[in-house]
Write a structure and sequence with these properties.
The protein starts with 9 loop residues before the first helix and ends with a strand. Helix content is 50%, strand content 24%. The chain is elongated, with a radius of gyration of 22 Å. Strands 4-5-3-2-1-6-7-8-10-9 form a ten-stranded antiparallel sheet, with helices on both faces. The protein has 14 helices and ten strands. Strand 4 and strand 5 form a beta hairpin. The protein is an alpha+beta fold.
Length: 379
């Protein structure tokens, strides 16, 4: 078997491998709109429900997500020359006993001292002192110029029972980039959550750099099934909605996204048998004139030769023959009433004018990692 190895796709497997220790990860890098934040919250609720998390923990996570997203939309400074380089950032990652919620956005340097003092004050207090401090803030009623009186920060600390991690990094002479992270743990919390995930804050920032370098806006890693695929599609629509979005989604790009997401939950293999959900990673990026849709998933080595043969067949044909082959496969699938794996590859080639690419990387004695990329012109 001749496995195609392509260094430009190494980052896909690197991210997949790093994220595999989480039950699920959702990351968004770009500008935030109201529709987008609503869809992120809705999708996250679906994910938590699918995982089977308790109502109590779900409520805590939801509250902290709302506060984090509101902090981004209230306090982010959109700077024309810097937005393309970094923009705002949101991450939700779940593990067996807890959830990490990370956000990042530009702020003015003059606000750094105030924000830092607020966080340090909250982090210094024990639960009883936090309760008293909250009461003091409520009674004083002091409001900031962007809304809120630090109550959200206090509530996040009280509901999570954990300290807020944060970092400020220089962006330019007048602005800084502000990262923050808070952890929510379930009643079944174990020391492993702290010991094995102490590097989570660093990893969240490093992952942001991966997204920047590869011009990726959305990443979802975890189990893929019909329900959360629909949630991802809704979120992508919201990400492209409104003047404040980083990109808008064309019909062709949406068609490519739908097909690739469906391909994971229908055809991916996994380390453990799971009929309802398949592990994989999905990425969506954009530049000035095109979108890039990338998926990665495990395939059993027994299937690799056939998969490679299909990919080579697709890339060898011109557009007319690809269209004929696609119609033929779809007709065959309709007659047999079975899904045809190869048909999707031909459809991707048609949508993108054959701007498709792939790699198949050995990862174990039993599995390879298949990365598939489609580039679709914006117009």
């Amino acid at each position: 078997m001749n496995v195609k190895e392509d260094s430009k796709f190494d980052f896909v497997y690197i991210l997949f491998k790093e994220m595999m220790r989480y039950d699920m990860s959702y990351l968004y890098h770009g500008n935030f709109s109201t529709n987008l934040t609503d869809s992120i919250l809705s999708f996250s609720e679906t994910c938590l429900d699918t995982i089977g998390e308790s109502t109590k923990v779900r409520k805590k996570v939801y509250f902290i997500m709302v506060e984090s997203l509101q902090n981004i939309t209230r306090h982010e400074e959109r700077i024309e020359q810097l937005d393309a380089d970094r923009a705002s950032y949101f991450v939700l990652q779940g593990i067996n006993n807890g959830y990490f919620i990370t956000s990042g956005n530009f702020i003015k340097n003059e606000a750094v001292k105030h924000i830092k003092s607020r966080i340090d004050m909250v982090n210094s207090l024990d639960p009883d002192s936090l309760k008293l401090y909250q009461q003091e803030v409520l009674e004083s009623g002091t409001m900031s110029d962007k809304g809120g009186a630090g109550l959200g920060l206090i509530e996040m600390a009280r509901k999570s029972g954990n300290k807020l991690k944060y970092e400020f990094s220089d962006a330019d002479k007048t602005h800084s980039y502000f990262y923050s992270q808070i952890k929510v743990t379930s009643e079944k919390d174990s020391p492993d959550v702290d010991q094995k995930y102490d590097d989570n804050f660093i990893n969240a920032k490093t992952t942001h750099e991966h997204l920047l370098q590869n011009k990726i806006n959305i990443v979802y890693q975890g189990g893929f099934n019909n329900e959360n695929v629909q949630g991802i599609l809704t979120m992508i629509n919201a990400a492209g909605d409104g003047n404040s979005s980083s990109f808008s989604i064309s019909d062709k790009a949406y068609q490519a996204i739908s097909e690739l997401l469906k391909n994971i939950y229908l055809h991916a293999d996994c380390f453990e048998i799971d009929a309802d959900s398949k592990p994989g990673i999905f990425m969506l990026g954009s530049d000035k004139d095109s979108y890039q849709v990338v998926t990665g998933n495990l395939v059993k080595k027994l299937k690799s030769d056939a998969l490679l043969a299909k990919m080579k067949d697709v890339l060898a044909l011109d557009s007319k023959k690809i269209e004929e082959k696609y119609k033929q496969l779809m007709k065959s699938a309709a007659i047999s009433k079975k899904q045809n794996v190869g048909a999707g590859f031909y459809l991707m080639s048609l949508i993108s004018n054959n701007l498709i690419d792939y790699s198949l990387q050995p990862v174990s004695d039993e599995f390879d990692f298949f990365t598939f990329s489609v580039k679709v012109k914006a117009n």
